[in-house]
């Protein structure tokens, strides 16, 4: 997502925080020297550090959702002294799931679909695999969402499928780096996200960190649909007042994940 999608949440927090949003590498207003270079979580983490340098900020609280949460995890691991609290909202860490082989194959298929059939078909497969109800047309095919995407939307989507998705989905978090401090890492899950792929990935990460996840309003895009309530929960988390929920045992990854055993 570009910075504009986070503008409502930034506005909701701006009365008591200095809020900085950005277009990730190659998205919207972020231009590229090498358009063919893949955008990895590590590369994007270094970009965030460069942004803090440009602002003259030694450290910051960091919020990231979905792929942005993966960037945040890489940021803590690579630049631990720069983060006070990371709120990682529903990171799609597919490598933590018991069916990782199937998930890798699904990611490859989505990317292949993009190259063969374009952005629209790739998004439909992506959303269906993520657990969203994409509906069915009269012929049984998925129904695309209403509205025509802009040229910038199409360019951002092409960048995502061609150069971001695989490295983000395959990212393996550095658990020792995330738990040794000084950064505090909080995993967020949507109250309505139980049927989505990012719910078990978030639960698996929370268990590996030895923490309970924090429930946020809405689903994967709760910061868009319930911005005011989402901002209030985020404020509480940053103040250390979060209410946590017990980790459901059915999402335990300890006995099934090779990363966890190592």
What's the arrangement of secondary structure elements?
Elements: H1 7-13, H2 41-55, E1 60-65, H3 67-78, E2 83-89, H4 100-117, H5 119-130, H6 151-169, H7 175-179, E3 184-190, H8 198-209, E4 214-216, H9 222-225, H10 227-238, H11 258-261
Parallel strand pairs: 1-2, 2-3, 3-4
Helix pairs in contact: 1-10, 2-3, 4-5, 4-6
How would you describe the overall organization of this protein?
Helix 1 crosses helix 10 (227-238), helix 2 packs across helix 3 and helix 4 packs antiparallel against helix 6 (151-169). The chain is built from eleven helices and four strands, in the order ααβαβααααβαβααα. It folds into two domains: 3-99 and 171-261, Rossmann fold (3-Layer(aba) Sandwich); 102-167. Residues 137-142 and 246-262 have low confidence and may be disordered. Helix 3 (67-78) links the parallel strand 1 and strand 2 (83-89). The protein starts with 6 loop residues before the first helix and ends with a helix. By secondary structure, the chain is an alpha/beta fold. It has a four-stranded parallel sheet, with helices on both faces. The longest helix is centred in the middle third of the chain and has 19 residues, at 151-169.
